[in-house]
Each structure stands twice: as C-alpha cells, then as structure tokens.
Amino acid sequence: MMNQIDFQNVSLKINKTDILNDISFHLDGPKIYGLLGKNGAGKTTLLSLLASFREPTSGALRINGEEPFENAAIMNSVAFIYEKDRKEETEKIPGLLELVERYRPNYDKEYANYLIDKFNLPLNKAVKSFSKGMLSALNVVIGLAGRTPITIFDEAYQGMDAPTREIFYKEVLAEQAKHPRIFILSTHLVSEMDYLFDEILIINNGSLLLHEDYESLVSRGASITGSQSTVDHFVRGKSILNEQQLGNTKSVMIYDELSESERNEAMALGLEIGTISLQDLFIHLTREER
Q1: What is the model's pLDDT at position 1?
Q2: Which domain covers residue 102, as residue numbers?
C-alpha cells in the first residue's frame, strides 16, 4: 500500500506565472489530511501534481520513493476525485463503474452498490441527467469504493446538501477504520469537516503556510478576554491574529501555545481563556495583510 508522499522544494510555473512556490512537506501513513486554502491559493494545482496531471517545474515529488508522472503503477494507486462536466455523458452508473473496476484493483463492487443505495442514486438514468448533488454523490462512490491507497477529494462533494454530506463524512471515517489509506480532502467547509482531519495543510498564495497535526494546531490558538489594559499587558509579545473591543472589555485572538504558568497567571488576573476553532485560525492566518 502507498503510504508516503514527499514534496521537496516543489515549484510550478504556468505560462511564466508562479503558481506554486518552493513547497515541501511529508505525508506518512494512513491518515485523513485536510488541505485548506482560499480560492486561487493553489490547492487544485498541488493535487493535480499528485495525480500526475502535471510535472513540477522544479523540485522533487515522490510517492513511496518514485516519481508519479507517467508511472503507471503509481498512477493507478492514486484517485483524484473532482467535479467533472458530465453534460454529454450518456452512460449510466453501471457502465461508469465498470471502468472504475477495470483500473482500480482494490475496487469493491459490493460496497459501491451499498453507497449507491445509501445516496439513492438511479441506475437506469444517463449520468448527464443527474442533478449537481447526484453527481457529487457519484464522485464519492467512485472515490470510496475504488479504495486506492491515495484517495483525493477536491471539493468533489460541494454539490451535496447537508444531510448527504454527513453520510459522506461518516463513510470516510468508517472506511478509514476498515481500510486505512491516505485521504486528502480539499475543502472550504472547514467548520463542518474539521473533526475528520488528523493533519492540516494550509496553502496561501501558492506557498505552504503550515502543516501540523490537528490537535497541535488548534491548541496553539487561544482567545484572551478581559479588561483592555490587562489583556494588552498579557498578550504583549505574542502573535496576535485578531482584536475586538466593546467598551473596556477586549478580546484578543492569539496564535501562541500558552504554558501552564501563563494560564494560571491569566486566571489570577481575571482573564478568560477560550479556544479557537480551526476555521477561525484558517481565516486569520490567511488574511491578505499577513
């Protein structure tokens, strides 16, 4: 099973424009990775390199020590699931899944049928007649039932309504428990999906802003609330993400891990320490002025 991905100083230019800049990270073992970034940050381009749709302009990309581009063995073990234009697709679901079964050695037909039933997808209609939500569900069926060692979902579920997305999330967790693999989920639905992630990668303006495990990342952020002067004194020298004030009460969002002594000091000063969600951290860490 594929279980390692290495980006080493990877950059990509398209028509002389820098799209990705000197990106390095290592993904090791079956985990669920959240890839976050604003529109145009470079998420899809990065994933297209993993899927062998492109070659890096410079740097090295390795999957289990091998270059993936035009490497059939590696390419067959990576599924890149994204929204496709199927307006001209006259095939029905059974015909499409026959192609998946042909090229995915780990494909589970029984599981695919279970998912088709779960998502209430019609077997007797041409795919071109599907709604956006049904197309998203079909993408999920292909990605999950294919059971490739590296499964990438690039916003492929955004056409689903909330109850259907919840089914998808539960299936991802169940699959990871039964058939561990590398999942990479690119998303804008940060607050809705954060509980899925083992590790987080944030891309901003074509560069890797951070790569950390989820628990370490969210524990580093904190909100400090209290009287203005006390808060200002306490957060002096810390990395401030956001400030809000109402009258003499001030709340500051920081990106620094507080020690036990600092937490005790805050309590003694009458300050309230709160947690910060992954979405809040993402928003403030990717602000343009940063």
Answers
A1: 52
A2: 4-205
Q: Which amino acid is at 29?
A: G
Helices and strands counted in the chain (H then E) = 11, 13
The reported pLDDT for the residue numbered 2 is 57
Count of beta carbons in the 10 Å neighbourhood of residue 233: 11
pLDDT score of 288: 61
Same domain, 9 and 62: yes
Q: Token pair of 29, please?
A: 């073992």
Does some domain include residue 18? yes
Q: What pLDDT score was predicted for residue 285?
A: 87
Bridge partners, 27 (sequence order)? 5
Query: How many CB atoms lie under 10 A from the CB of residue 58?
Result: 11
52-93 pLDDT, tens digit per residue, is: 999 999 999 999 999 999 898 888 899 999 988 888 888 999
The pLDDT-based confidence of 290 (bands split at 50, 70, 90) is very low
Convert 104-129 into a string of H (helix), E (strand) and C (coil). Answer: CCCCCHHHHHHHHHHCCCCCCCEHHH
| Closest among 8, 10, 23, 48 to 152, alpha carbons compared | 48
User: Are 170 and 222 contained in the same domain?
Assistant: no
Listed residues 153, 180, 205: the one ending a domain = 205
What percent of the chain lies above the pLDDT cut of 90? Answer: 81
Give me the CATH number covering residue 181.
3.40.50.300
Q: Is residue 17 part of a domain?
A: yes
Q: Which of 174, 205, 236 is the last residue of a domain?
A: 205
Calpha distance 91→282 (Å, rounded): 40
Is 157 or 140 the better-scoring residue by pLDDT? 140
- In the block, residue with structure tokens 């067959």: 76
Contacts of 137 (CB under 8 A, 6+ apart): 115, 119, 121, 160, 164, 168
Least confident piece of the model among 111-115, 140-144, 174-178, 241-245: 241-245
Phi, psi (rounded to 5 degrees) for 270: 80, 20
- Rounded CA-CA distance 18/235 in Å is 37
